[in-house]
Design goal:
Elements: H1 8-11, H2 15-23, H3 33-38, H4 44-51, H5 56-62, H6 67-75, H7 82-93, H8 95-106
């Protein structure tokens, strides 16, 4: 379903009037450095996990990450250290290869 908007009121305004109207909208305030500093970034790990189509439990199990640690990372309670970030980059680069390497490491020698 396509929604059509009547832009005639906006088109009739000057640029200054549009700017003033935008500033007058409490739900559409400009992003100031102060407001940006208070915002939580979207965790990239959550994006990665969702792109792989995995639940937190599945991701944690598949890549041998403690579930509580994964949840803390996704919720911004904790940040992955340098080694964990490298591991997550490897997963993002080739999740199948990482999973295969983990499976090989679990096989008896």
């Amino acid at each position: 379903m396509k929604i059509k908007h009547d832009w005639s009121r906006v088109e009739a305004m000057t640029e200054e009037q549009r700017h003033a109207a935008a500033l007058g909208d409490p739900d559409a305030q400009p992003l100031t450095p102060e407001r940006a500093a208070g915002m939580k970034p979207t965790p990239r790990l959550k994006i990665l996990r969702r792109a792989l189509g995995l639940t937190q439990e599945e991701f944690a199990t598949r890549f041998q990450i403690p579930l509580g640690t994964l949840r803390d990372w996704e919720q911004g309670v904790a940040e992955p250290d340098q080694t964990a970030r490298a591991y997550l980059r490897a997963i993002a680069g080739d999740a199948v290869a990482v999973q295969h390497a983990l499976e090989l490491s679990l096989q008896p020698r």
